[in-house]
Amino acid sequence: MTLRSRLLTVAAAAAIAVGLSSPVANAAPPAGLGFTGGAPFLTLDDATLNNELGAGREIGASWVRVVVNWAAIETAPGVFDWGNTDRVINAATAQGYSVLAVLGGTPGWAQGGIASPLPGAVPLDPNTFGAFAGAAAAHLGDRVDSYEVWNEPNIPTFFAPVDAARYTGLLRAAYPAIHNADAGATVLSAGLATTVNFGAWTVAPVTFLQQMYAAGAGGFMDAVALHPYTFPFTVENDPNGQWAQVDQAYGTMAANGDGGKKIWITELGAPTGNGPMAVTEDAQAAIIGSSLAKASSLPYVGPVFVHSLRDSGTDPADSEQNYGLLRSDFSAKPAYDVVRGS
Fold it and tell me: Are 289 and 235 within 8 A, CB to CB?
C-alpha cells in the first residue's frame, strides 16, 4: 500500500462516512475475481494460509496475487531460494486458484552503489531483472501463467526516483524473458497507484502510462494494470474522479494501438479501523461493491483483485493493517458478504 491514501484528506473521509452508512448488496462480479495480500501474505504459516485461501474460495475468488520477491529469492547472483514462494503458490494452486505473480524487489547486489532494503530500490542494470523474470517463469512453469512486472512504479514508495523511461527498461527486459520461458504467459505492466501529479515525487497513472508508451512500452505488455482506489468515496460520488483514470488509461492504450488489450485491476479496496485514513465497515462495503459493479460494466476490464482478503494485523489505528474483507480473527466485515453475495 502507498501514499495514495495520504493524498485523501481526513475531512473528506469524515464527511463521506455519513453518506455511506449502508453497504451495497449484490454487486455484479467482474470477469475474474481475486484478492491480494501483499508481502504479509508470504509470512503466513501453513494453517493460516490455507484457511485464508479457503475463505477466498467461499466468496468466489478464483485468482490470488502473490508477490515473487526478487530480493528474497536471489540473494546472490544466480543463487536462488524458491522455498517460500513455492510453498505459497503450491497452496494456492492446490485450492484451484489461478496465480498472478508480481515480480519486484531488488537485491542489494543488483542495486549498485549503496544498497537499500527499501521496496523503492531499482536495479542498476535492467537486464539483471530481466534474467530473474525469465528464471521465475521457468521455475514456476505451469503453476503460473500471469506475471505483473513490478508494483506502483509511479510513486517513490516502490520506485525511486519515479521515472517512466527507467521503468519501461525493466518491462522491456522482463517481457521477452518471460515469454521465452513461457510462450503462453500473460505479462502485465505494473499496477499504477491512484494519485495525482505532485511535483517530482509522484506521477499520475495516466501520465505515467503515456510516458511509458513514449519510452517504447508498446509491444512489451499483454495487458495494463491499475490500482483505482476511490476511498473514502464510492465510484459514483467521488469528487476526485479517480475511477475516470481507468477510462483515460484505456483511451491511451487505444491511441497507441492497444485497444484490444485488457486493463487488469490488480488492487482496489478501502481500510477500516480508526486511523486517519479509515472508513467505516459499512462504507468499505459500499466502496468495494461500487467498484466491482463498475468494473463488471466495462468490456475492457479483466480480472479484479480486492486488497485484501483479511486484515494483516490487529492495530485499528494502522490503516495498512485493516484493508481486509475479514478481520484478522477471520470474522467477516460487511464487505465480505457484499462480495460473496455478488
Answer: no
Contact (Cβ atoms closer than 8 angstroms) between residue 207 and residue 247? no
218 CB burial (10 A radius; 0-12, 13-18, 19+):
middle
- How far apart, in whole angstroms, are the C-alpha atoms of residue 341 and residue 28? 9
CA 89 centroid distance within chain: 17
User: Residue 112: what pLDDT?
Assistant: 85
Query: Which amino acid is located at 313 in the chain?
Result: G
Between CA 85 and CA 170 the distance in angstroms is 22
**The three cell numbers locating residue 332:** 467477516
Residue 297 CA to residue 73 CA, distance in Å, equals: 39
Closest C-alpha among 86, 74, 190 to residue 140: 86
Nearest to 336 by CA among 19, 28, 59: 59
Q: Which cell goes with 284?
A: 468499505
CA distance linking residue 107 with residue 115, whole number of Å:
8
- Give the other-Cβ count within 10 Å of 83's Cβ: 9
d(CA 283, CA 339): 14
Q: Position of cell 505532485?
A: 198
The most distant pair of C-alpha atoms in the chain lies apart, rounded to whole Å, by 55
- CA nearest neighbour of 62 among 27, 102, 97, 100: 97
Distance between CA atoms of residues 64 and 32, nearest Å: 10
Question: Distance between CA 52 and CA 59 in Å, rounded?
Answer: 11
Task: List, for residues 82-140, the tens digit of each pLDDT value.
Answer: 999 999 999 999 999 999 999 999 999 999 878 888 889 999 999 999 999 999 999 99
Indicate the pTM of the whole model.
Answer: 0.90
**Nearest-angstrom CA–CA distance, 70 and 123:** 11
d(CA 25, CA 288): 10
Residue with cell 527507467: 166
**Burial category of 215 from C-beta neighbours within 10 Å (exposed 0-12, middle 13-18, buried 19 and up):** middle
